[in-house]
Amino acid sequence: MLYSSENGTEADPIRRAALALADGTVLEGVGFGAVARTGGEVVFNTGIVGYPESITDPSYRGQILCQTYPLIGNYGVDPAHFESDRPQIAGYVVSELCARPSHVTSRKTLDDWLRENGVPGIAGIDTRALTKKLRVHGVMTGLLAAGDGPQSPARLRREAREVADPNARDLVAEVTTPEIRIYNPGAARTVVVIDCGVKLNIIRALVRRGVAVVRVPADTDAGRILSFSPRGVVISNGPGDPRQAAATVAAVRRLLAAGVPLFGICLGNQVLALAAGGATYKLKFGHRSQNQPCLEEGTERCYITSQNHGFAVDTASLPRGWAAWFRNANDGTNEGIRHVRRPVFGVQFHPEACPGPTDTEFLFDTFLEAAG
């Protein structure tokens, strides 16, 4: 079944679509969302819920997102759950699309929302088989062609091979705020958020804790950041290879020298490691789900976390004075770093969740207590 309604009956297919991978694989299905051809890095997310949050997460910039959960769109779309002001994905891949959602908060269908925002989708794909391929061979670039008539497999394969790796671009520059924005002005304490593609729930989590939040563009220099007299600085999540965010790394290096309390989240954890003199590397297929188990080093605690990243910190590269804080219980990769003496630390997972568990939201309190 490619499309379903709330009573489980099948709707008529609308238009053809195809997903071609750089390895020559071509998968055919039914198009939804925008009529368009788009290239990107094909990745998968194993979450059961939270598709509006994932679609609007700037960390997915340049990527064609595959959902392994078989039914998507069943509770519609509600802007209250967005993590940015628009969809950020390049394309969307689902097994079965719900054409008639049923939920009290739903404002429109997933199909309509993606069409309005120019994002193509494909339904009718065996998303679990696609996920298994990406797990074995690693994520790869691909082409999604939706709704423009029959596709020539030869042409699709050729165009898929020609898709440039989005990680070679400075994706952070594409998603950061164009201007400084202030939330909860007048609060007694100020925290600066370096916006590398910040999820809005990070800002919400800080505002709920009674601080003023100054959101600055990713290329803001350290001097301008310090001019706000912040108690601490958060380096946000974001897309792509952290080494492409050279201006942010340089600013964080100066903030480290200035002794400012720092908290890195996801890409921010990687930026913090690079600024400290460490190294990062690309994971085979990344971590994108809401059920990643993370062990706190030196303890028996294990937290279930929400994650969305394709790069990681090389723990062995951390210089003297730094230590691993968390590690992934599945593959042993780094999930957090911290300075052994100063209030400076980062985590690879998302303590703000959305979607996902809130087990680690206490880290915002830890940061604000350290910031004073």
Question: Would you write up a description of this structure?
Answer:
With about 375 residues, the chain is α/β, with parallel strands linked by helices. It folds into 2 domains: about 5-165, Glucose Oxidase, domain 1; about 170-370, Rossmann fold (3-Layer(aba) Sandwich). The protein has helices at about 50-55, 110-115, 125-135, 155-160, 170-175, 200-210, 220-225, 245-260, 265-275, 360-370; strands at about 5, 15-20, 25-35, 35-45, 65, 70, 90-95, 95-100, 120-125, 140-145, 180-185, 190-195, 210-215, 230-235, 260-265, 280-295, 300-315, 320-330, 335-340, 345. A 10-stranded mixed β-sheet has the order 11-13-12-14-15-20-19-18-16-17, sandwiched between helices. The chain has a 7-stranded mixed beta barrel with strand order 2-3-9-7-5-4-10. α8 (about 245-260) crosses α9. The longest helix has 13 residues, at about 245-260.
Quick gist of this model?
With 372 residues, this protein is α/β, with parallel strands linked by helices.
Task: Give the topology, please.
Layout (H helix, E strand, L loop, with lengths): L2 E2 L10 E7 L4 E8 L2 E10 L5 H5 L7 E5 L3 E2 L18 E3 L2 E3 L11 H7 L3 E4 L3 H11 L2 E7 L6 H10 L8 H5 L5 E3 L6 E6 L4 H9 L3 E6 L4 H5 L5 E4 L10 H13 L3 E4 L1 H10 L2 E18 L5 E13 L7 E7 L5 E6 L4 E4 L14 H10 L1
Parallel strand pairs: 1-8, 4-5, 5-7, 6-8, 7-9, 12-13, 12-14, 14-15, 15-20
Antiparallel strand pairs: 2-3, 2-10, 3-9, 4-10, 11-13, 16-17, 16-18, 18-19, 19-20
Helix pairs in contact: 8-9
